[in-house]
Amino acid sequence: LDLDQIDTDTLLGILERGHALKRGTAAVALGLDKPLAGKTLVLIFEKNSTRTRVSFEVAMRQLGGDVIVLEGDKSQLGRGETIADTARVLSRYVDAIMIRTNAPEKLAEMAHYATIPVINGLTDAAHPCQVMADLMTLREHKGTDLSGRVVTWSGDGNNVANSWIKAAAHFGFEMRIASPDGLRADRGAVEWAQANGARIVEGSDPEALVTGADCVVTDTWVSMGDQDATNRHNLLRPYQVNESLMAHAKPDAVFMHCLPAHRGEEVTDGVIDGPHSVVWDEAENRLHAQKGVLAWSLLG
Ligand code: CP
């Protein structure tokens, strides 16, 4: 359900398979041309999506499988059918469920009652599929050994930040979080990562925390469901990733953003369209990382 519930070898295996599928060596990676033929994935969305929806659909189809999309408000979930009953029924029809929901409890309930794999397509607490794509991108640009690298998150400690923090425990990079008081990353994520050997540095000085970074990451200041947009904008304005802030990172640092971006808010055009940006590689890697996730979930 997030990167604290998977061991490093399994995570590496998913990423390696994603890299192999991206290189087109699917036959090597899986031994078959259409390895998911006869398999069906259902995608449940209670929140908006472009990348997650399209990349999962394309991934499934390219691997030979089938996909069904359930919009939360158009299924019986939207009229009060329980997650538990939905999980039991879907388990009789399909081979895996991906769910995007605000509440981590709903994801956990789906996983508890389903008898098939359940994939976390984002909750307010975590976004592991995104961070697997981010890790693929970082490995492509900085090499597969990420120990000793520095990744700086600038912005509020949101669901994506939480999954990045957990990734640091698997890959040995230093994770720095620049965020204002009141919008810090989840304490549970930080404590789990530290207990598992990660070096996590938190503070409220983005310039100091970006200094010497190999990778700078940010995200929208107002996530789906956040109510206090004006207050968040005021708090987060000093954390904008702009050309001046990027100048403190290493000259060959990469810039990442999971998208959608709010240009002029958390990032300037000059950065997202500039030489450090790898955001289009990152977006593409959603497709490849999720192929790795699907192959692991459905084939082992
Ligand atoms: N980054 C991400 O999850 O994009 P979508 O909201 O478009 O799926």
From TrEMBL:
One of its GO terms (molecular function) is amino acid binding. Its main location: cytoplasm. Residues 148-296 form the Aspartate/ornithine carbamoyltransferase Asp/Orn-binding domain. GO terms for cellular component: cytoplasm. Carbamoyl phosphate binds at S49, T50, R51, T52, Q76, R100, H127, P128, C129, Q130, C258, L259, R286. InterPro entries: Asp/Orn_carbamoyltranf_P-bd (IPR006132), Asp/Orn_carbamoylTrfase (IPR006130), Asp/Orn_carbamoylTrfase_sf (IPR036901), Asp_carbamoyltransf_Asp/Orn-bd (IPR006131), Orn/put_carbamltrans (IPR002292), OTCase_ArgI (IPR024904). It holds the Pfam family OTCace. L-ornithine binds at N159, D219, S223, M224. It catalyses: carbamoyl phosphate + L-ornithine = L-citrulline + phosphate + H(+). It is found in: Cytoplasm. Keywords: Cytoplasm, Transferase. Reversibly catalyzes the transfer of the carbamoyl group from carbamoyl phosphate (CP) to the N(epsilon) atom of ornithine (ORN) to produce L-citrulline. Belongs to the aspartate/ornithine carbamoyltransferase superfamily. OTCase family. This is Ornithine carbamoyltransferase. It comes from Roseospira marina. The lineage of its organism: Bacteria, Pseudomonadati, Pseudomonadota, Alphaproteobacteria, Rhodospirillales.
